[in-house]
Design brief:
The protein has 239 residues and is α/β, with parallel strands linked by helices. The relative contact order is 0.10. It folds into two domains: 120 residues, Rossmann fold (3-Layer(aba) Sandwich); 99 residues, Orthogonal Bundle (Arc Repressor Mutant, subunit A), CATH 1.10.10. The protein is built from eight helices and eleven strands. It starts with 15 loop residues before the first strand and ends with a strand.
């Protein structure tokens, strides 16, 4: 794949992308292509180097290869989901549904199978950044009470008392979509469209619902707030 690349340097306030891949050729191609698309780009060859870059630089999104020597992309994604508010797009040669589901289970925002068209990656990156940028714009959204937790759709934050419960970008977007139509049954197709994950499949929504329940439910096995409506979808029932 060799798409045309523009030479203009990205502006200093352009979104900053971290590309992590042990394939030197692909890593360099993505760096040059994404810079040509107007992004600032930093690269890392493995998880250890990525952690070092994350400790000293601020990033808006991570593009991460799954199959790397040492720590895998899945493990690094899970760590990022626990410690940073940065969306992750996974790249992998393994495109089976169970592999995509594993990516979402570890906290990825999106998943792209190799070989891929670089322009599609750029489109997905922009879609994720647009969704995240739109979060503060929803200032009219009222906070949602979920037992002893409070979700603020305007900020995409979940708090329990003085504690902030970390949500991935996908989890925050999913909870916001449910909160804005609280009491209504939303199909998996509705939720996939709200998250821009139409291609991921229904199972990916189920996985993210399961992850979200662990953070909002007293007992995720017996959900009170985020309930399944058999054969139809999900409904959020705040306190």
């Amino acid at each position: 794949m060799a798409p045309p690349m523009r030479e203009a340097a990205p502006p200093p306030d352009a979104p900053h992308i971290l590309v992590v891949d042990d394939d030197t050729r692909l890593r360099d191609l993505l760096r040059r292509f994404l810079q040509g698309e107007g992004f600032r780009v930093t690269v890392a060859a493995d998880a250890t180097e990525a952690r070092a870059k994350l400790s000293g630089l601020a990033f808006d999104l991570i593009v991460l290869d799954v199959m790397m020597p040492g720590e895998s992309g899945f493990d690094l994604t899970a760590w990022v989901a626990r410690t940073h508010d940065i969306p992750v797009v996974l790249l992998t040669a393994r495109g089976a549904p169970e592999d995509r589901i594993a990516g979402f289970e570890h906290g990825a925002e999106d998943y792209l199978a190799k070989p891929f068209e670089p322009r599609e990656l750029a489109l997905r990156i922009r879609a994720i950044l647009r969704r995240r940028a739109a979060r503060p714009a929803a200032a009219a959204d009222a906070p949602v009470i979920l037992g002893d937790a409070v979700f603020d759709p305007a900020r995409g934050t979940l708090t329990r008392g003085a504690e902030t419960i970390r949500l991935t970008g996908g989890e925050a977007a999913l909870l916001a979509a449910l909160a804005r139509r609280a009491g209504e049954i939303l199909t998996r197709e509705d939720l996939a469209a709200a998250l821009g994950q139409e291609e991921a499949g229904e199972r990916a929504i189920d996985v993210q619902v399961t992850r979200l329940r662990r953070k909002i439910e007293p007992d995720p096995r017996e959900p009170i707030f985020l309930q399944t409506v058999r054969g139809r979808g999900y409904v959020l029932k705040p306190s």
